[in-house]
Amino acid sequence: MTSDRRDVLEFAGATAATILASGLVGCVGVDAQEAADDVPAYTRWLAIEDGGLEFVAVDWAALEGYVEDELADIQPGAEEEAVPPEYEADPMIAPASEGLLEAYFFVGLDLAQYGLGRLLEADAFESTVAELLLTDDALVVTGAMDPGELDAQLTGEPALEFIQEFEQTDEIGEYDVYETVAADDDAAIAVADDALLVVPDDATGDDPTAILEATIAVGEGDADRAIDDSGALAWLIETAGDGDVAVGQYGDSIAVTDGEGLVDLAFGTFEGLEGADGVVSSLTVDDAETSTGDFAALVEDPDEATLEEVLGASADETSVDVEDDRVTATGIWTEPN
Fold first, then answer.
1. Contacts of 329 (CB under 8 A, 6+ apart)
2. pTM to 2 decimals?
3. Is the dihedral of CA 117, 118, 121, 126 positive or negative?
4. Strands across the sheet with 128-135, in order?
């Protein structure tokens, strides 16, 4: 994560909890999206690497109108909006709100150097975005892509000095693969009719092209997917991973807070979750006045009293259940009249 991007996210994080907790419930004309299968579509791209996994999934089609109205106005240096402490301390709100900001600003800031920073803006591209998935290694954008349009944007003469020029270097199945022309930037991008994959050169220090190839293999079912590798992770996602914004940490990733990679959720810093083996949390807009949240965690010897106090602490209605090492919670947030 670059220092400039981190500065923006630190500022944006000061308002993110309020945006999701009190703002989403007032969003008119947004309907909850239901997955057709038992697990959300984004899981086709998830793989367990180095014993862990971290992700942010955003149903952009559900949130687009709200995000454009609210988040686009966030600017570094402006006066920070006060965030109620119960939102910042609530594991059902803070990580999801911060994850939404990470995905949103990754597109707007990081992709700007590739000429794709306006991808989420209405009418800026013919290509349309349905969902965003951000992992520690890569961004996956799904929707109706226009490969010709994106090719022209990537390989054309850069409009500004800081924009990197790409060239098509390979094909992987239905994906056209692009790499930067400049030798000092090793970013890799893949484009197909229904997906755009981006691996920046500073993601995890590994070879971006190799990460791109591995991500495509998982997405196409040619490599092991996380939910097939781990029944525990599959339970977490099936229980709490189907929302307009879904975030998760599993395995070794939950204990890492060093800021490396593209996602930094830090579930393990919340009371009662310090020793968790995995956490998934999601928020969904139900109607113009109500949002709901689902939460699932695997915690050895869970402190039930602490979890009942912190989970959904900012919600109007909350239910927490602890059974052995499995912790589940639901919350309802209602816009005040």
1. 92, 293, 294, 295, 296, 307, 311, 312, 318, 319, 320, 321
2. 0.88
3. negative
4. 166-172, 175-180, 188-191, 195-199, 139-144, 128-135, 52-58, 245-251, 276-285, 290-299, 326-334, 317-323
Provide, rounded to the nearest whole percent, the portion of the chain with pLDDT above 70.
Answer: 80
Please say whether the beta carbons of 63 and 25 come within 8 A.
no
More confident residue, 228 or 3: 228
CA distances from 119 to 53, 123, 130, 204, 331 (A): 26, 9, 11, 24, 32
Give 139-162 pLDDT, tens digit per residue.
Answer: 999 999 999 999 999 999 888 888
Between strands 139-144 and 166-172, the pairing is unpaired
E strand segments, the chain:
52-58, 128-135, 139-144, 166-172, 175-180, 188-191, 195-199, 245-251, 276-285, 290-299, 317-323, 326-334
* Longest pairwise C-alpha distance within the chain: 60
**100-109 pLDDT tens trace:** 989 998 998 8
Which tokens go with 94? 């803070």
User: Which H or E run contains 147?
Assistant: helix 147-155
Q: Between the CA of residue 74 and those of 11, 100, 256, what are the distances in Å?
A: 9, 13, 28
